[in-house]
Write a structure and sequence with these properties.
- The structure is a single chain.
- The chain is mainly α and 89 residues long.
- It has three helices and no strands.
- The protein is rod-shaped and about 125 Å long.
């Protein structure tokens, strides 16, 4: 009977390894893949927010774009479509 309690204070090797894995994973810190993902998402966010800020700033400060001048040929076609005769005809 005394032999039965000889190993009572020892942990089986399979359980000992599981305990070490749990301790090692907690002490390593962040996963490198997670860090890369966070950096990429952060850069994308900064890019999108920066573009939005620049767009709103440009809308407020820049004057509206000038329209293209209409050629005389197009003006003549438009007048004929509307039924107004062009001068000189």
């Amino acid at each position: 009977m005394a032999d039965d309690f000889e190993f009572a204070d020892k942990v089986p090797p399979s359980f000992d390894r599981v305990g070490n894995v749990i301790k090692d994973s907690a002490s390593k810190g962040f996963n490198p893949g997670l860090i890369v993902l966070l950096v990429i998402v952060g850069l994308l966010l900064v890019f999108l927010v920066g573009n939005y800020v620049l767009y709103t700033y440009a809308q407020k400060t820049l004057p509206p774009r000038k329209k293209k001048p209409i050629s005389k040929k197009k003006m003549k076609k438009d007048r004929l479509k509307q039924g107004i005769s062009a001068p000189g005809e």
